[in-house]
Amino acid sequence: MSGVIDAEAIAAELVEAYSTGTRLPCTLSSREGFSLQAAYAVEAALARRRSAAGRRVVGRKVAFANAAVWPTLKIDTVVWASMYDDTVQPAKADARTAVPFTFAPKLEPEIVFKLRTVVDGDPTDPVAVLGAVEWLSLGYEIVDCPFADWTFQPPDLVAAFGFHAGLVLGRPTQVTPANATSLAGQLSTFTLTLFKDDVRVEQGGGRNVLQSPALALGELAAAIRRTPGARPLQPGELVSTGSLTTPPLIGRGETWRAEPDGLDVASLTMAIQS
User: Fold this and answer.
1) How many CB atoms lie under 10 A from the CB of residue 153?
2) DSSP SS3 for 181
3) Tally of CB atoms within 10 A around 209
4) CA spacing 20 to 30 A to 103: which of 110, 116, 149, 274?
């Protein structure tokens, strides 16, 4: 097999898989020469296709925000992919949420930041990182995998839209000079309990995301700066920082609720459309 990677051709494969609901027969990472660099080239090709179709990139989603798994996965930082204006929506208080069920979607409760400015402070200082943030909220990242049995490596995730199928946003908490230090401390210690149809599923928290979602944002900004050709984070972008719990599979008609404890942010309920 040739080791030459055709990013546009692979992007076309992925678009076809998602549009028809047909899983790819093997992972992209099983192909000769398919590296993380190649995966970002495919992700950029997908973004160009979506832009040509009238869609707009509105942010990034972060994956592998758990440094303990990096050696096993042969990566040394987080990975990321684009989110779009038609894949992000606010939570509905009085209606059910339409969720794409293309393959086998999972739910990731996450902290989402909206950037006010570029992230150019010390990426290891959560207060400095929050200086670039306009607001934060809870969010549900809906992820879906075009490979069988959720089998993948980092290049597969990056190339395949970052597995991003949608993001549901909760009510935002404004970040100001007056509360940034307090929020920075809370983000490293808060817990979050996830419920399905009022039954407790799991408890997680900020420490599961690089010890703090603010540090995950800082790591993303630093990783993008180190990556040749990567599009810099822009003011106004949304960043979903990684799952606070183990991502569970979801089903139609279910209601999910995330209850934070120790963080000044609203809880988030999502009733999935049947």
Assistant:
1) 18
2) helix
3) 26
4) 110
Measured distance CA(89)–CA(111) in Å, rounded: 15
Residue 11: inside a domain: no
Residue 93 lies in a domain: yes
In a domain, 46, yes or no: no
How many domains is the chain partitioned into structurally?
1
Its domain, for residue 109, covers 57-271
Could you give the dihedral angle defined by the CA atoms of residues 112, 116, 121 and 122, in that order, rounded to the nearest 10 degrees? -10
What distances in angstroms separate CA 266 from CA 9, 152, 179, one per listed residue? 43, 33, 16
What is the C-alpha separation between 139 and 149, in angstroms, rounded? 25
Question: Would you tell me the crossing angle of helices 7-20 and 36-52 to the nearest 10 degrees?
Answer: 60
Instruction: With H, G, I as helix, E, B as strand and everything else as coil, classify residue 132.
Output: coil
Least confident range from 94-98, 106-110, 218-222, 269-273: namely: 94-98
Query: What is the tens place of the pLDDT at every residue in 240-251?
Result: 999 999 999 999
- On whether residue 24 sits in a domain, the answer given is no
For the domain that residue 199 is a member of, what is the CATH number?
Answer: 3.90.850.10
* pLDDT at 1 (0 to 100): 38
φ, ψ dihedrals at 56, nearest 5°: -130, 135
pLDDT tens digits, 161-189: 999 999 999 999 999 999 999 999 999 99
Name every residue whose Cβ is closer than 8 Å to that of residue 37 and which is 6 or more positions away in sequence: none
